[in-house]
């Protein structure tokens, strides 16, 4: 994992530093070895915008590859799409491929969010059904390098709402987003972004 190639954006600028170019997102994913490590094809059609609420009342909108302090990631996030995605429905998944450490990811992937039935309302993704896995705040263990937390957007298949592979009681460890996407006919993600989060100092 070549995190040294990533461009990190200072926290004070994050409110305004969202992704604006699909090609830059692809380069950030490639530099962080995400398609290789997740075994996915990443050729996005749209920009996925992920915003995290803050206790100050402000919102941080992710820029692909940005590093955030853990206390800025409590969430839950909101999602939006920029580009011609259609009305939906969509599935959003969030995974950590670096657990417990990037050097020894024996528990990966950790499923940090999995929800479907999102619809596009003026660019904002709305969902009126419970998530399969509600958002879990990043918690990399003490002594670990920063983990990658990857958000992926899929077009929802007919099989998604009837799948039995994952439910709210299924372990979040040892998840495999590529296998799940193949088993439920989600195909390749149409959008994505990611953040880096290190353990609390």
From TrEMBL:
Family annotation (CDD domains): PEBP_euk (cd00866)
Highest taxon of source: Eukaryota
Pfam families on file: PBP
Span of the signal peptide: 1-17
InterPro entries tied to this protein: PEBP, PEBP-like_sf, PEBP_euk
Record key words, sorted: Signal
PANTHER family per record: PHOSPHATIDYLETHANOLAMINE-BINDING PROTEIN (PTHR11362), PHOSPHATIDYLETHANOLAMINE-BINDING PROTEIN 4 (PTHR11362:SF82)
Protein name per UniProt: PEBP-like protein
Taxonomic lineage from the root: Eukaryota, Fungi, Dikarya, Basidiomycota, Agaricomycotina
């Amino acid at each position: 994992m070549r995190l040294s190639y990533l461009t990190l954006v200072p926290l004070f600028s994050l409110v305004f530093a969202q992704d604006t170019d699909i090609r830059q997102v692809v380069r950030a994913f490639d530099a962080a070895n995400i398609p290789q490590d997740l075994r996915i094809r990443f050729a996005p059609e749209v920009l996925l915008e992920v915003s995290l609420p803050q206790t100050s009342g402000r919102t941080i909108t992710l820029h692909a590859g940005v590093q955030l302090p853990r206390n800025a990631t409590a969430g839950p996030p909101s999602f939006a799409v920029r580009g011609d995605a259609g009305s939906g429905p969509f599935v959003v998944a969030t995974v950590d491929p670096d657990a417990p450490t990037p050097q020894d990811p024996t528990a990966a992937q950790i499923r940090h969010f999995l929800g479907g039935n999102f619809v596009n309302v003026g660019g904002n993704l709305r969902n009126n059904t419970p998530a399969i896995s509600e958002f879990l705040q990043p918690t990399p263990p003490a002594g670990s390098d920063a983990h990658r937390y990857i958000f992926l957007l899929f077009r929802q298949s007919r099989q998604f709402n009837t799948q039995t592979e994952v439910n709210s009681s299924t372990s979040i460890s040892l998840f495999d987003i590529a296998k799940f996407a193949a088993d439920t006919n989600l195909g390749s993600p149409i959008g994505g972004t990611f953040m880096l989060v290190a353990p609390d100092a």
